[in-house]
Design goal:
Chain lengths: 443, 263, 244
């Protein structure tokens, strides 16, 4: 009996050896180099002879390149290093030419665009050119009407796919939107545009002063503050219906609405009690609750984007405005900044950071540069992100947490700028009129 | 009956014992022999290039770890409401150092104080650690291979011959993503500042189909508990690596990750 | 025969007698009087001396009429057939004289040009409440980032309180303003605090709260746009606006 058991055990041990070996393993570690992926993106080729192809191809190629370049996670290989022959389909790919110098790329995105009748078809691939045996990471085909806008959207989608795969599961932002205030029509109204500054258009036509647009997490409604006949009120615009929808009025000065991450609550500043305080209510306007009670201006609340359990806001209760945090019910107030004039906090999507606008030296006679800073909430360590002069204010995070948009007056008037979350790659997005208070969509 | 059985066992006891013992010795001997004979000791198996085709593609000579932008315990930010699993990641994946060097002096002094301040902090860190382990692991005892591995010695050998399956060679780009994300999320300042250099710590974890890490374990400790913990936390912070490649047939991939610490 | 002839003569004689008698009687009526000669038409003349004056200056109107019974001048009224009168037109005016008489109507005009330059003399009739309000009630100015009334503004504040208590029916709005340097949202909240700060001070001084409305304009409606200390101070204020 015992012998039988021992044999069985031994046999089982022996038999299980191969299964351990078959377990798929990755072995890797730190210190092995985490530089950015070298990505080559040659122009897509035309797969059909059509007079419209060159124009659509140009839109597609420019958009695709910009999206991948803006993503901040690739080291884009300059087109001047590309071999003369550019692939339009898998059979054309010459691995050696791409993976060795001069391009020396790890990844290659290529494909073709064809028009038939009123439709355009785009085929795109992402290849690991250092892996000749199984290079394909992505193979996609898109079809839509043969218009500039459709082709631009296809480029955004393809770029987002590449970013999602190579960026570790975080969706790309190429289809996200930015909402902002523009005075170019003569009045401050709420406008919208693509994340790269394309398709700028007005949403409201109220003819008054409308400020602080904030889009809901599901992208269906936009809350903002506007000067009505008697007071500043929170107004609501429906993007689904393309018009204003009713929303309760509170009296006093009501400003800076902010959505909780699940879209069920709004926090805002109201002076209906005679002194501006932070209130929380349902996104329908019901169940109004006050959560601060300090003498002095309290404004610009923003929820913890990861948990909605805390709120950061600006309070002038100790003099110059400073950034504070508290639990969403108003308890556990903590002060985050210790000097200067700090305003406009924005909580990062991962919940770890606040970006805000800070004039660290403020007072009579001091010129006081106003710059965007990023602060780790727990350790309170901060890093200055803008240095190029002008007044920089109202930062807002991208949904992937890698980009920040803000308003800057460094080029003369107020315009909207974008940058990577470490302060590099600062680029201007708007030019006409005065454009302020940008707000990035949640996806 | 009972008497008979006892009598029976008693009679054959000596012989069977001898057989059993002998057999066990033989097995043990063969295991030992295997380790010696099999190519590569455990260290080599995970060496920078030796170990599996998995790594060959993406290895580069050592580059200093990307200076993480702003390092965080992210305690205030999220834990208290059951966020334990997905501790957020610092988004700035830039490998090159950002202005932080200016504040690194600040950081050093703060880092020294933070470990000691960790205990009194209102958001409980110990609680965080405890919480994190349970949701991750599928609870309960570790599954088979680990158990055997910790029996010592035999592991390297088995791992190597099995090869990295062919996952590493087919999906080198995915491996690179895993490497980058874990490295990005490793906050060196969580290690006790008095440590200048330490042995490697080996962590294992699984990546399931949708890209989430699971089952994080310290496979071989570096001897420095804070280093071990910082390594475990690095992986716990990650929400996802991105879904496993769609044409990969397995349900999960197991990762062995080592952390070299040098202050 | 003769008798018949005689009757015939007698008839004729009677008829002619009647006719003659009638005729005689007619002859007695007096002949119709000839139509009376038409009455004389009125004449009128009007002159102004001098016919150009500076604003506020006066001129003399002189007129003459004949054959008129009803004489009037626009803006003056009924006047004697001949006369003169001094007038002080506010603006250039054409004076119109109308003379009515049995003979008809006659008109005459005289133009007086008024030169504008001289400003009209200050408060003519009684000044309106709104004008008084904007002249007397002073805005309250604030320090950087502050919304409490500073000591050097107390006098102005007191003056405002006094006026408002005297004119108890006046309703008004206090606007809170900030200088351009701060952030849009914070400045709206700060402006609101400034407006409310002034309101509270007034209420404490005895002005009833239901007369007062407040609104904040932050830095959205500045009084000046230069980037200088003076302009910044100009913008940091609680501004009073009369409510009609």
């Amino acid at each position: 009996m015992k012998l039988f058991l021992s044999w069985t055990i031994a046999l089982l041990l022996l038999l299980s050896l191969p299964t351990w070996a078959q377990q798929d393993w990755i072995r890797t570690g730190t210190g092995l180099g985490v530089e950015k992926v070298r990505l080559a993106v040659p122009d897509f080729k035309a797969s059909t002879q059509d007079p419209k192809s060159p124009e659509l191809l140009k839109v597609f190629n420019d958009t695709l390149w910009n999206d991948l370049d803006n993503a901040g996670i690739f080291d884009m290989v300059s087109k001047s290093f590309y071999p003369l022959e550019v692939p339009g389909s898998p059979a054309d790919v010459k691995f050696e030419a791409w993976s060795s110098p001069p391009p020396n790329s790890s990844m290659l995105a290529f494909g073709n665009l064809g028009i038939s009748g009123a439709n355009v078809t785009v085929q795109g691939w992402l290849y690991d050119v250092k892996n000749v045996t199984s290079p394909q990471v992505l193979g996609k085909q898109y079809q839509d009407g043969a218009t500039s806008d459709a082709v631009r959207t296809i480029a955004h989608k393809f770029a987002d796919e590449i970013i999602f795969r190579l960026g570790g599961g975080i969706p790309g932002i190429a289809e996200s939107k930015i909402f902002f205030v523009s005075s170019r029509s003569g009045h401050k109204e709420i406008w919208a545009m693509d994340y790269d500054g394309a398709n700028q258009r007005a949403l409201t036509h109220l003819g008054s002063i409308s400020l602080s647009p904030r889009i809901s997490p599901d992208g269906s409604r936009l809350a903002f503050s506007s000067l009505t006949k008697s007071s500043w009120e929170i107004l609501m615009y429906s993007l689904d219906l393309d018009r204003m929808v009713t929303f309760p009025k509170f009296g006093g000065t009501n400003l800076s609405p902010a959505w909780s991450a699940d879209g069920t609550k709004l926090a805002f500043s109201s002076s209906r009690s005679g002194d501006s305080e932070i209130y929380v209510m349902d996104s329908s306007g019901a169940n109004l609750k006050r959560i601060t009670s300090f003498k002095g201006p309290d404004v610009s609340p923003v929820w913890n984007r990861k948990t909605s359990a805390q709120i950061a806001w600006v309070s002038g209760r100790s003099g110059l405005p400073q950034i504070y945090t508290m639990e969403a019910d108003g308890t556990n107030v903590q002060r985050l900044t210790d000097e200067g004039y700090a305003v406009s906090p924005a909580w990062s999507p991962n919940g770890q950071f606040l970006v805000f606008s800070w004039i660290r030296h403020y007072g009579p006679g001091a010129p006081g540069a106003q710059d965007i800073y990023i602060m780790d909430i727990v350790s309170k360590q901060w890093v200055q992100l803008t240095h190029d002069g002008g007044r920089n204010d109202f930062p807002s995070w991208s949904p992937d947490g890698r980009h920040i948009i803000f308003q800057s007056s460094r080029a003369g008037g107020d315009q909207i700028w974008t940058m990577l979350a470490d302060g590099t790659n600062q680029k201007r997005l708007t030019t006409a009129g005065s454009n302020t208070q940008p707000n990035w969509s949640w996806k | 009956m009972a008497a008979a059985e006892i009598f029976f066992e008693h009679e054959r006891w000596g012989r069977n014992l001898a057989w059993s013992a002998g057999f066990h010795v033989a097995i043990a001997a063969s295991i030992l022999a295997y380790t010696v004979i099999a190519p590569g000791s455990r260290g080599e198996g995970w060496g920078a290039g030796g170990g599996g085709d998995a790594m060959g593609v993406t290895l580069v000579s050592t580059v200093p770890l990307p200076a993480n932008q702003v390092q965080t315990q992210n305690v205030l930010a999220n834990e208290s409401k059951g966020l334990s699993q997905s501790l957020p990641k610092p988004e700035v994946k830039e490998p090159e150092a950002i202005p932080i060097p200016d504040t690194s002096a600040k950081k050093k002094s703060k880092a020294e104080t933070t470990p000691t301040h960790q205990k009194p902090q209102p958001q409980p860190e110990p609680a965080e650690e405890a919480n994190n382990v349970v949701p991750f692991g599928q609870g309960g005892p570790v599954s088979g291979p680990y158990g055997v591995f910790s029996a010592g010695g035999a592991k390297g050998g088995f791992g190597v011959t099995g090869g990295g399956g062919d996952f590493g060679s087919r999906y080198a780009w995915y491996v690179r993503v895993v490497q980058q994300k874990v490295s990005e999320n490793w906050l060196k300042y969580e290690v006790d500042p008095r440590i200048a250099e330490a042995q490697r710590v080996y962590i294992t974890f699984d990546v399931v189909r949708d890209g989430r890490p699971a089952n994080v374990q310290v496979e071989q400790s570096s001897g420095v508990p804070s280093l071990d913990q910082s390594a475990v936390r690095a992986i716990q912070r990650i929400d996802t690596f991105g879904p496993l490649p769609s044409d990969y047939s397995g349900n999960k991939v197991s990762v062995e990750f080592w952390f070299d610490y040098k202050r | 025969m003769k008798q018949r002839r005689l009757k015939w003569i007698m008839l004729v004689f009677a008829l002619s007698a009647i006719m003659t008698l009638g005729a005689c009687k007619k002859k007695v009526a007096p002949p119709p009087p000839p139509p009376p000669p038409p009455p004389a038409a009125p004449t009128a003349s009007l002159s102004a001396s001098p016919n150009t004056v500076d604003k506020g200056g006066s001129t003399t109107l002189t007129w003459q009429t004949t054959n008129a019974t009803d004489i009037s001048i626009d803006g003056i009224g009924a006047v004697q057939p001949n006369g003169s009168q001094q007038v002080t037109p506010a603006d250039s005016t054409t004076y119109h004289l109308t003379a009515k008489g049995p003979g008809g109507t006659q008109e005459a005009t005289a133009r007086v040009t008024v030169n504008a330059p001289a400003p009209p003399p200050t408060p003519q009739a009684s000044a309106t409440e709104e004008e008084l309000f904007s002249q007397t009630v002073k805005d309250i100015f604030f320090e950087y980032d502050k919304f409490d009334v500073r000591p050097d503004q107390q006098a102005a504040l007191q003056g405002d309180i006094d006026f408002l208590k005297q004119h108890a029916s006046v309703r008004f709005t206090i606007e809170g303003h900030c200088d351009e340097r701060g952030s849009t949202e914070y400045n709206l909240a700060l402006g609101d605090n400034r407006a409310n700060g002034v309101k509270n001070a007034l209420v404490q001084g005895g002005v009833s709260a239901d007369r007062i409305k407040t609104i904040s304009y932050g830095k959205e409606k500045p009084f000046c746009t230069q980037s200088t200390e003076e302009c910044w101070q100009q913008n940091r204020r609680g501004h009073f606006v009369y409510q009609k």
